[in-house]
Amino acid sequence: MTEHDIKDQSLATGGRFRIDWAEQEMPVLRAIRERFEKEKPLKGLRVSACLHVTTETANLMRTLQAGGADVVLVASNPLSTQDDVAASLVVHDEIPVYAIKGEDDETYYKHLSAAIDHKPQITMDDGADLVSTIHKSRREALETIIGGTEETTTGVIRLKAMAKDGALEFPVIAVNDSDTKHLFDNRYGTGQSTIDGIVRATNILLAGRTLVVGGYGWCSRGIANRASGMGANVIVTEVNPMRALEAVMDGYRVMPMTEAAKVGDIFVTATGDIHVLDTHHFEVMKPGAIVANSGHFNVEINLKGLRKISDGDPKLVRPFVEEYSINGRPVYVLGEGRLINLAAAEGHPASVMDMSFANQALGAEFMMLNAETLKNQVYTIPADVDMEIARLKLEAMGVGIDKLTEEQETYLNQWQEGT
């Protein structure tokens, strides 16, 4: 049996059904897998992936394996693992998986160590915990690594900080910065799945409620848009004047969090920064305020500070809903402050992850072909690869587009002809 640390192998059959269901919605990744099976561009490549263990990720792992890669998968978040998916990958695909939904921090880092013990040549991260651990405490692993890929905004922020400080020891592809990732996954995927997680956890009606979104990056844009579409009154908080101005022009109220905290019914953070919701915000919230996070790490909500000002230990009043009491006034935290779309729901729909994971698969191939010429910096997947993923997605959706005529191409590539 393949080495692993998962909850229950008997869940494998149900996991396979769900993985196959997701695959139907992932035609771009399927096309890449068909090519990989023929060409084996990743033959012999050891890949350690630290990603959310979901049905969509399973299809990425199968694609890398089809390309000849030797893959190990660990969870990038303690609450995001789908245990039946982990079981299916171990039992049916013989892919080593180290992930258990609800694992404690000690187990989480033990699993990260298992990924590093694989002696990867390429790392595949969602939040940069794997890369960070290698640089901090497992530097012997740097001997074999040629490069990596990073899936999410939070991870890219960390990696760019490392590169700026001269601490990054190998090149990394910022998958998150591809247009076919952040314009679609972050906006439409996060928008829908975040609302899905909040509603599944609470079963509340959004219409007529005031929902506060922390930040107005692509993820927050999607959350604000979907919440507004369901009848919520949306407030946006921002530190960036340009994004704040855009939120105003998009029709949302914009104000500091200190003001929004007094009037919001539901709060969602999605910034990638720490303590977006802090103790002084909790102290002025309405009784029954609901707090959730859709940024990668639970640090966006100051949970330690919340515990300190609470009357006692929180009570679990529903699955993924903890009630804190501040002077007798309840405040509800969803999913332990972790990614609510994966803690309480199933994450992004497969059709949008199709493009994100197409970027991951092609990013690994690009890194294998070009690692020797790349510096220890953060790179974006080439624009032509990004454009090809968009073309394949449109084709799979049955959508046709125009093509420039020779006359139009000539006009766009000259300067002499004016009005």
From TrEMBL:
Subcellular location: Cytoplasm
PROSITE patterns from the UniProt entry: ADOHCYASE_1
Catalytic reactions on record: S-adenosyl-L-homocysteine + H2O = L-homocysteine + adenosine
Coarse class of the protein's main subcellular location: cytoplasm
Entry annotated with the keyword Hydrolase: yes
Recorded coiled-coil stretches: none
Residues that coordinate or bind substrate: 54, 126, 151, 181, 185
Entry EC number(s): 3.13.2.1
List of residues binding NAD(+): 152-154, 186, 217-222, 238, 294-296, 341, 348
SMART domains linked: AdoHcyase (SM00996), AdoHcyase_NAD (SM00997)
Cofactor: NAD(+)
GO cellular component, one term: cytosol
Domain (S-adenosyl-L-homocysteine hydrolase NAD binding): residue spans on this chain: 186-347
Domain of life per record: Bacteria
Single Gene Ontology MF annotation: adenosylhomocysteinase activity
HAMAP family: AdoHcyase (MF_00563)
Alphabetical list of PANTHER family matching this protein: ADENOSYLHOMOCYSTEINASE
Function: May play a key role in the regulation of the intracellular concentration of adenosylhomocysteine.
Family: Belongs to the adenosylhomocysteinase family.
Protein name per Swiss-Prot or TrEMBL: Adenosylhomocysteinase
